[in-house]
Amino acid sequence: MKQNDVPQDHIKTLGGLRKAMYATDEQGNYTVVPSDGWEAEELVLNQAIEEFERQTDEALARCRSNISSPLEYHMYHCRMDQIVLAQSTGFFKWQVKRHLKPAHFCRLSAKKLARYSEALGLSIDQLKSLPDE
């Protein structure tokens, strides 16, 4: 992409900030060019956020029905999935999947809960609870 082609669509999701993008100058060298964002980028980002909100709502319903553990709700609320949460905690994906089950979650050690707590930016008490209705 050439310097003059860098999108400047003033998207709302950047909140008036700018981000760096790489583009080529007149000599063909790569250079950093500030951008106000790209409309297509904002559209995709908003769709992803809506999907995480949908998953969060569904996870909350499953947690309240004791089908899933509070970990699933907090995972989606923090815009993570099982793979990202596994990478953030150092657990294997199969372990995260297992910990999403209430019977296994309630038996987690304080050390394992602390790993989830740190990755999600929550206290252990917050991790074990759900928001009020």
Descriptive overview:
- This protein is 52% helix and 9% strand.
- With 133 residues, the protein is mainly alpha-helical.
- A two-stranded antiparallel ribbon has the order 1-2.
- The chain starts with 18 loop residues before the first strand and ends in a 5-residue tail after the last helix.
Features:
single chain; 133 residues; mainly alpha; 434 Repressor (Amino-terminal Domain); 2 domains; two-stranded antiparallel ribbon; 2 strands
**Helix and strand element order:** EEHHHHHHH
On the 0 to 100 scale, the average pLDDT is: 93
Just name the CATH architecture of the largest domain. Orthogonal Bundle
Number of helices: 7
Determine the oligomeric state from the structure: single chain
CATH class bucket of the largest domain: Mainly Alpha
In total, the number of domains comes to 2
How would you classify the helix and strand content by structural class?
mainly alpha
Q: Report, as a whole number of angstroms, the end-to-end distance.
A: 49 Å
The amount of beta strand, in percent, is 5-15%
Sequence stretches where pLDDT stays below 50 over 5 or more residues: none
- Large-scale geometry: elongated
Number of strand elements: 2
How is the largest sheet built, in terms of strand order?
Answer: 1-2
Output the CATH topology of the largest domain: 434 Repressor (Amino-terminal Domain)
